[in-house]
Amino acid sequence: MAGAGVVAAGVGAAAGVATAGGGTDPAPTPAPVAFRGEHQAGITTPAQDRMHFVAFDVTTRSRAELVALLRDWTAMAERMTRGEEAFPDGAVGGIADAAPKDTGEALDLPAAGLTLTIGFGPGLFDDRFGLADRRPEALIDLPRFPGDDLDPRRTGGDLCVQACADDPQVAVHAIRNLARAGFGKVAVRWSQLGFGRTSSTSTTQATPRNLFGFKDGTNNLKAEDPAGLADHVWVSAADGPQWMVGGTYLVARRIRMHIETWDRAPLREQEQIIGRTKGTGAPLGQQQEFDPVDLHVKGAGGVPLIAQDAHVRLAAAESLRGAKLLRRGYNFTDGTDGLGHLDAGLFFLCFNRDTRTAFVPMQQALSSRDAMMEYIVHNGSAHFAVPPGVQDGEHWGQSLFA
Amino acid sequence: MAGAGVVAAGVGAAAGVATAGGGTDPAPTPAPVAFRGEHQAGITTPAQDRMHFVAFDVTTRSRAELVALLRDWTAMAERMTRGEEAFPDGAVGGIADAAPKDTGEALDLPAAGLTLTIGFGPGLFDDRFGLADRRPEALIDLPRFPGDDLDPRRTGGDLCVQACADDPQVAVHAIRNLARAGFGKVAVRWSQLGFGRTSSTSTTQATPRNLFGFKDGTNNLKAEDPAGLADHVWVSAADGPQWMVGGTYLVARRIRMHIETWDRAPLREQEQIIGRTKGTGAPLGQQQEFDPVDLHVKGAGGVPLIAQDAHVRLAAAESLRGAKLLRRGYNFTDGTDGLGHLDAGLFFLCFNRDTRTAFVPMQQALSSRDAMMEYIVHNGSAHFAVPPGVQDGEHWGQSLFA
User: Fold this and answer.
1) Hey, which residues 190-229 in chain B have their CB within 8 Å of chain A?
2) How confident is the prediction for chain A on average, in pLDDT?
3) Which residues in A lie closer than 8 A to residue B20 (C-beta atoms)?
4) ipTM
5) Chain A, nearest residue to B14 by Cα
6) In a domain, A18, yes or no
7) Domain that residue A269 falls in
8) Least confident residue range of A7-21, A33-47, A156-170, A384-398
9) Residue A140 lies in a domain
10) Cβ contact A341–B260 (<8 Å)
């Protein structure tokens, strides 16, 4: 947390810090998040407020070119997460007759807690790059879930990069510069902006609300629970493959919420669907947000207070043979649906140690029985193997291509 | 500025304040922006960091129903700009068997500098509501400009509401609740999220950068220049019509930037296109960002340092018979274009006293001759009459419908 109290005079307004009402108060600039380590940053890092997520198709057929890109990306990413330009003096310090090596829109901005997290999709493990025998068994092609209405333009991808930051301009700048460096080797397949986090990944964070108005992520795995993370998030040596040890699997789902319909549901029904009270976020039958969910409390007539089809019941580890995952979702609003409504919802991101035994059974339970399904539709989906963190001198994908 | 130093414990993380790196530092919560006054808020208000803009089609044919909606919206808007719910105790304080009157996702959030600004489009002045003879002459149907490639799904609208706030969740919540209250009377025609401001509307603000990486809005009219605002922004009694006195005209343009092409242009060319240096933002031939633009400085061989087709030259008041406007633009990134690129750009908003003599000649000059046109395309456009501020007891549109 060193530096968290340091004031960066003059950058407050541009750094996404509240300055309305003519505010000129500089605000604390958080310390950059370390890029290297045992695990990639951006997973258990306390969830930043904003996100830009991109999925790429790899267009080059050259393994060497792909590896070189991953090497270049690593250096760029490390610099940008320190609050530096993608290339040293890249925006304005180069030759006037050459295109700047950094696009410049984050020049005056601090790191803003930027993390960049890479993942490898199933498509990378075909016959193009000699990786067919390195595909993790856990990196399955996701099954079709009941109610899925997947848009191919929001689905899949050979590579992904998740950029999270407290200033959206910093996240967008990072994705843009990586995309730019990949010109001719990768093409943007889809991208998603998330304007507000809907998960807490640390006990230091207040629980945010999703666009149903409910607190989301109360029961999430947290950074302060290393045993839980070891059990449910990080790939172990016993799991294999070796190149994934210390990594995890990322599932991204674009969940359109039919907010207009939801908004017509009575408060009681909303709370029964979720299984929590809307105000405090307490589980039904409890008093406080962080009181444990008790699925066995009964109300009048012996009926469970938390309904059989309530979201918290179906998603509870108790209902899923102990399965848990780490969520890192973001609210989105992408214009309109052309039918007079906002196109809004939740960009669901989760990290799990084995998607086959965590996300898949959870989503099968939810998509089959969750009362919430009446109000949502999953219209984008992707699955990525997120390799472990890079050590000094290593680059993204080093363990995979070694 | 009263209250600008007040700390709202516990809401920092949810309020869009930088908290990465585990930061738990509460940050200053700016005072709410006054909703009522001579002019609407959200015009000269120091530009907040985030924006959600919506254009509605009016679907009711009843004038009385429309006026009633404007009255309801006014009360909701005033409450929300104070950081309150759209309706008192609207989210969780109502009857359990009724739909909550507020959607709840901003329950724990402060006002975040929220402003809500309404405008009336040309379409409102047809024969549906008896307003045909009240249409201001200045509320023209915008001409087609060279290079326009307008998408009808991003163009026009009978009504608009601009929500600006330092927390995007607060802006989205406001638009959503207004849209909800309008169900059956209005339908969302289009909406646009802006993730980062690209204009300063106050001398207290640092100049932000657009997605070309350049400082934008240096020469903008500022809140601290009432004479300039009177000359260029506010409709006077002499201008008429009476119901618009103290109001202004809003032009919205969705400007897609071909950032991939721009990023391949040499630094010198980028600076010549803009007419400023990229690093400091100083006009070419000057030293500091706020040095006056001098269109007459010549370099080697007597060639003007600021080229004939440079953006700052064409947009300068000196080149436009003194015309100026107040800009309030936002960067956007809306996924992808389906061709391997990010769909990114600038959502241009401006306010002017008479669009016929300010925005239109400026845009004609730019779209005809601006070297920047090679890198942008305007694909959305709308024009609205923004009525004056509401006084105590008044509602939005009161002067129009009186």
Assistant:
1) 190-193, 195-196, 200, 202, 204-206, 208-214, 223
2) 92
3) 30, 33, 45-46, 48, 112-113, 165-166
4) 0.92
5) A208
6) no
7) 41-401
8) A7-21
9) yes
10) no
- Establish if A310 belongs to a structural domain: yes
Each residue of A273-303: pLDDT tens digit? 999 999 999 999 999 999 999 999 999 899 9
CB contact under 8 A, B18 and A188: no
Q: How many domains does chain B have?
A: 1
This prediction's pTM: 0.93
A290 touches chain B (CB under 8 A): no
Residue A139 pLDDT greater than 90, yes or no:
yes
Residue B26 lies in a domain: no
Residue B263 at interface with chain A, using a CB cutoff of 8 Å: yes
HEC letters along chain B = CCCCCCECCCCCHHHCCCCCCCCCCCCECCCCCCCCCCCCCCCCCCCCCEEEEEEEEECCCCHHHHHHHHHHHHHHHHHHHCCCCCCCCCCCCCCCCCCCCCCCCCCCCCCCCCEEEEEECHHHHCCCCCCHHHCCCCCCCCCCCCCCCCCHHHECCCEEEEEEECCHHHHHHHHHHHHHHCCCCEEEEEEEEECEECCCCCCCCCCCECCCCCECCCCCCCCCCHHHHHHHCCCCCCCCCHHHCCCEEEEEEEEEECHHHHCCCCHHHHHHHHCECCCCCCECCCCCCCCCCCCCCECHHHCECCCCCCHHHHHCHHHHCCCCCEECCEEEEEEECCCCCEEEEEEEEEEECCCCCCHHHHHHHHHHHCHHHHHEEEEEEEEEEECCCCCCCCCCCHHHHC
Whether residue B174 is predicted with pLDDT greater than 70 in this model: the reply is: yes
Portion 315-354 of B in contact with A at CB < 8 A: 331, 333-336, 338, 340-342, 344
Tell me the percentage of chain A whose pLDDT exceeds 70: 93
Percent of residues, chain B, with pLDDT higher than 70: 93
Of B30, B169, B340, the CB nearest to A196: B169
